[in-house]
Amino acid sequence: MCSEELKKLKLYNLFQSIEMPLLKVLSDMELEGISLDTEMLSDFSEELSKDIVNLERNIYEISGEEFNLSSPKQMGEILFEKMKIIDKVKKTKTGQYSTSEETLSKLKGKHQIIDHILEYRGLQKLLSTYVKALPLLLDKNTNKIHTTFNQSVAATGRLSSVSPNLQNIPIRTEKGRKMRKAFIPKNSDFEILAADYSQIELRIMASLSADTSMLSAFNNGIDIHSATAAKVYKVEEKDVTREMRSHAKMVNFGIIYGISAFGLSQRLGIKRKEAAEIIENYFIEFPKVKEYMDLSINKARDNEFVETILGRRRYLKDINSRNGMIRAFAERNAINAPIQGSAADIIKKAMIDVQKEMEKQNLESRMLLQVHDELVFDMKKSEKEILTKIVKEKMEQTITLDVPLVVDIGFGENWLEAH
């Protein structure tokens, strides 16, 4: 696409002010690389291998026989014919029982064997994809991992990375989080600094929708999930239970992705009717959020694209499809893409601003990684005060919303400690 076309589509400023300057930042990060604690990974590999063997043993004991855990056919027969975990079973096109991640995740909690199988698969993936694979990717000259960042792969504008993919390192499980312990500073004069945007997508939602209750919570430093729970469950904030807050948190993030009552019921393990009531109460208490969602869908129907705060476009050709499922998927993207895309634009701009100031002050510290809403640095210990100030100020002031951007910063001898 030439500059004239970019100008015509009002994308030239985004191209010039974000994507082009970011090239240099990403190039520097790729060349710098990140150090790896191979001894830690070796010990972790042994630990995971033992856990996997124990899980295998438990699965066989519960099922009453040994079978090939890598065989969907054998697993399906054990779960749905022999054990009859559920009555109505989804099948694949070939007539086999589905044992996909999605299928089994929906059955989580129904029987302990399901939980064991999901954990087994998670540990197997962690072991093969990261723990054993990363040491093999160490550069012989630098003895570091050098990932490659992609600017134009994700439709939302988010960065992705390959060889290795460091964007998808697990964070939801304890074992997955432990993987971050392997990423360390270059030497004893340095420390890892991790800076993470706090609830950036919800803050963008508050700003785009201009919902009074959401704006008030963020502008007054009130915990958004507790505030949401109080409104949805119609109780005082002091009376919000941990479970209420947990449910509200799931709703807050789910709404951004156009979650349905069925989807929420699956995630929370509650009845569909109860989930529908929670969503209905949410929209009563946060009416502008519903207005924003409807407006986004209607705009997308008219234009066949949506835009981020900085003007990045996500084309949605299927928004007017006659196929209900295809259309619904596009509608969810119409709601989510401006939010997720704006978050991506914001952190890209922050990376440019931070790097520029670091170079201006001739710091020895280096930016290493960008993972979703987080930036990771190899920080010279003697530069701790100045780097912290630069990162916090530049990340929080990179763009002006109707609510403050908040950045949490941590330090440590590895990425896990810092995060």
Question: Can you describe what's shown?
Answer:
With 419 residues, the chain is an alpha+beta fold. The chain has three domains: 3-38 and 161-200 and 345-418, Alpha-Beta Plaits (2-Layer Sandwich); 39-131, Up-down Bundle (Taq DNA Polymerase, Chain T, domain 4); 202-340, DNA polymerase, domain 1, CATH 1.10.150.20. The chain is 55% helix and 11% strand. It has 17 helices and eleven strands. The protein has helices at residues 3-8, 12-32, 38-63, 72-82, 101-106, 112-131, 174-178, 200-209, 212-219, 224-232, 242-256, 261-268, 272-285, 287-303, 324-360, 384-397, 415-418, and strands spanning 34-36, 144-145, 148-150, 160-162, 183-184, 190-197, 305-307, 313-315, 366-371, 374-380, 407-412. The strands form four sheets. The protein has a four-stranded antiparallel beta sheet with strand order 9-10-6-11. A three-stranded antiparallel beta sheet has the order 2-1-5, with no helix packed on it. Helix 8 (200-209) crosses helix 14 and helix 8 crosses helix 15.
